[in-house]
Prior knowledge:
By secondary structure, the chain is an alpha/beta fold. It has 6 helices and 6 strands. The strands form 2 sheets. Strands 1-2-3 form a 3-stranded mixed beta sheet, sandwiched between helices. Strands 4-5-6 form a 3-stranded mixed beta sheet. Helix 1 packs across helix 2 and helix 5 (143-155) runs antiparallel to helix 6. The longest helix is centred in the first third of the chain and has 26 residues, at 2-27.
Amino acid sequence: FGSSLHRTSKIVVAEFLSSTPNMLNARKKIVKEKGAAATDLENEVAKALFDIEVSPSSDIKAELRDVVISGAKEVEVSKSGAAVVVHVPFRVWKTVRKIQGRLIRELEKKFNKRSVIFVANRTILDLNFKRKGLKVRPRTRTLTSVHENILEDVVGPTEIVGKRTRISVDGTKIMKVYLDPKDKDKENIENKMSTFSAVYKKLTNKEAVFMFPEV
């Protein structure tokens, strides 16, 4: 009995040691503010990214070496599903944008029944920007510009071809966002319309409806 217990302990320790380097490497994929601990979901996303990076069959491993995340949150889309919103530092956004479609496809295989959306970190500068030593507020740092960029991030890699704002009787603004019709049959996009709306609302507190233009 004692020897079998000893054997079991050795197996558990061996398994732990073999998984530890992978976990440590995966944690390098998370960049957070000093002292902030990663959540279980962030660790899960980081591990999934690392697994794709080291997979022999991956065709995006070179680009993934530079990709890190700064956060991940789950957004409820409906009673039956949720989306994983992955935030990345702005400095790696150009790389993510290049492989966005393939990366989302690979991650969604790992996150059963959950859509994956990537969003870049952007800082909004309010009207007190002069106190921060800036003479002019860059247009890219205004609330309007940041929200426009978030909109493009959320639907990526699909392109936006048009927008219209409708004001309802009670004064509520709803934006209609038209997506590139060439992507209509791509990547299960039709089923993601409600996901885009839920995530955009969560990130900006603004209502948007996504659709393809009628031909």
